[in-house]
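pipeline/complex-builder :: batch 7 item 3
reading input block
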Amino acid sequence: MTWTCEQTELLLTDYLDGLLQPEQQRAFDLHVNSCERCTPLVSSVTHAIANLRALPELETPPRLVYNILDATLGPRETVTGWAAVRAWVRSLASPRFAYGSISVAATLVMLITASGFNWKKPKLADLSPVKISRNTYRKANVLYGQGTKYVSDLRVVYEIQSRLRQDNELPTNNENTVPESAPQKEPGRTDGTNPSTPRQQNRANDATTHLQVLAEELPVLSGKLSLVLIEGRTR
Amino acid sequence: MEQEAQLVQQCLQGDGSAWEELVRQHSRRVFNICYRFTGNRTEAEDLAQDVFLRIYKTLGSYRSAYGGFATWMTSVTRNLLIDHYRRTKRDRITDSLDDAMPVVENKASSARRPDEQALLGELSSQVQSALTRLSPELREAVILRDLQQLDYSEIQTVLAVPEGTVKSRINRGRIELARILQQMGVRPS
């Protein structure tokens, strides 16, 4: 079957929609694959259709439905009196209102707890503005003191740990740098053994362990101490 | 389809909620057809409102034998769009002369609302622009086939023309659209 460029143009939609007979389809493919004019035509139309179908479906403008309903059914009646109250109460049952209420309540509980209110022994006096502001101020001071102390403790600990690390690294470096062939002999020693081993080395290890334990315990100890000091000061 | 026929029946008996249901179900589709045909959001909104007003007035003339309610509604939309096109032809001739000047074309595109611009994106905007440059006969055929995904018999019902004419318009519309897109620099990757 012979196929012309005019036929391609005429039956392009049938081809793209899969409506051609098998024989026509073959002839179409054969022609398009070898025709310099039809190859870009089929490609550009396919591309155009793909672009068209990729166009997003727009949302309806919010006021359109109300405008149509107002224009056809007439303006909506305004509800007044008890009917309005009933409609308002019904609207409270919506999930959005429930979520909003829960989040507001949770925020209030957190704020009241932070202001020092005792939920186990509630007193009306605890809710007075003076008491709330005093408690809040006191708590803020305590928190600030704890924070400052914790940071300074951390600095001390890091300093101790870094010094210990330096001390541990130094003898190793010396051993590596001092040549083994020339051991230094100390006065009074004739056996040629290393003066720092093994007893002196054990003592050094014990001291390191104690310092590490002290360094680890220091934040806790100093934190407690600072709390006692701050509370004493606020009283 | 039966549910829609029932809703129409309820509307005819004066049930406002049934009418509201119909409006909510179909307003998006009608608005989209109007927007793709005109390329202007405000115009599309006004036209969609007019479509529903006309449907409300002529609901009694709807017969389920005519086809689905959606097809009938599309037909009403198309008729109104063509009426609108003919009414505003003089304005558009002036616009098309302006469109030939690139500076004015840029000015028109920059006048589009920012949210609309962001929504469409550059390519979508170009395709929409190419679509509105098609003749109304080809444009409506392409919109119904490639955007509304209607089959040939439904398009035949909406346009009230033989199937051969439907195919021919879709075919010519697609080729013309591809040519316009190429002119605009939108080429297959």
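note: Chain A is about 70% helix and 0% strand.
queue -> next item
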